């Protein structure tokens, strides 16, 4: 019997990214919905993720936290889904590049900007992203050839990058450039993305116990 996939999440969290990835993989999983300030900080859950945050994925005896790591793990754990270049494939380079770019420079730049953090030009070498404008330019350049980060091939990197762009466009933390809007719309049209969104939206409409 295959190891069970248990997914810890909240519909108003980055767990939406991992949910989308799970739907893309197409393997059965059990979702455990946690509450902020409640079950997320319970001793049982802190034993899984000491940060007391979601998402987290338990696959048998393996625990994975951080949305980007969950995306990468699932792509490798279920290669039949075709969501990552195989080890040794040169396409693994840009796949990793943009997955980690979104988890590092992109998220940091967007978060700092949303919080009003201004990095003086003379101190840009101290932050991994340099400047917000440089990050947006790099992201736009990566997406311009299209339709996906790896050309014609959709991958787990698109799940993570696409979710970041989708959230950013929705909440105004990423500028509305045609390349970003077209990419987000393309990804939102995927059946797995629509299934994941419907599941989380339904949870949001149900009062927490």
Largest sheet: 4 strands, mixed
**Gyration radius, in Å:** 17 Å
Average pLDDT, all residues: 95
Helix share, percent: 40-55%
Q: Which CATH first-tier class of the largest domain would you pick?
A: Mainly Alpha
Question: What is the β-strand count?
Answer: 4
The tally of helices reads 8
What best-fitting shape do the alpha-carbon axes yield?
Answer: globular
CATH architecture of the largest domain: Up-down Bundle
Q: Kindly report the CATH topology of the largest domain.
A: Glutathione S-transferase Yfyf (Class Pi), Chain A, domain 2
Low-confidence parts? none
Could you characterize what this model shows?
- This protein folds into two domains: about 80 residues, Glutaredoxin, CATH 3.40.30.10; about 100 residues, Glutathione S-transferase Yfyf (Class Pi), Chain A, domain 2, CATH 1.20.1050.
- Strands 2-1-3-4 form a four-stranded mixed sheet, with helices on one face.
- The chain is of the alpha+beta class and about 210 residues long.
């Amino acid at each position: 019997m295959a190891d069970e996939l248990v997914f810890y999440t909240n519909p108003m969290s980055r767990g939406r990214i991992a949910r989308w990835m799970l739907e893309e993989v197409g393997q059965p999983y059990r979702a455990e919905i946690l509450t902020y300030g409640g079950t997320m900080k319970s001793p049982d859950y802190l034993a899984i993720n000491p940060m007391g945050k979601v998402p987290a994925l338990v696959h048998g005896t393996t625990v994975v936290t951080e949305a980007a790591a969950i995306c990468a793990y699932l792509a490798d754990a279920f290669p039949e889904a075709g969501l990552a270049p195989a080890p040794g494939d040169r396409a693994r380079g840009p796949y990793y590049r943009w997955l980690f770019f979104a988890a590092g420079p992109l998220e940091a730049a967007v978060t700092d900007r949303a919080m009003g953090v201004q990095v003086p030009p003379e101190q840009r070498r101290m932050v991994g992203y340099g400047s917000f404008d440089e990050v947006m330019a790099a992201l736009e350049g990566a997406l311009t050839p299209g339709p996906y980060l790896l050309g014609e091939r959709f991958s787990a990197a698109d799940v993570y990058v696409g979710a970041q762009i989708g959230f950013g466009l929705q909440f105004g933390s990423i500028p509305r450039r045609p390349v970003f809007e077209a990419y987000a719309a393309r990804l939102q049209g995927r059946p797995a993305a629509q299934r994941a969104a419907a599941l989380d939206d339904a949870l949001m409409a149900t009062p927490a116990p």
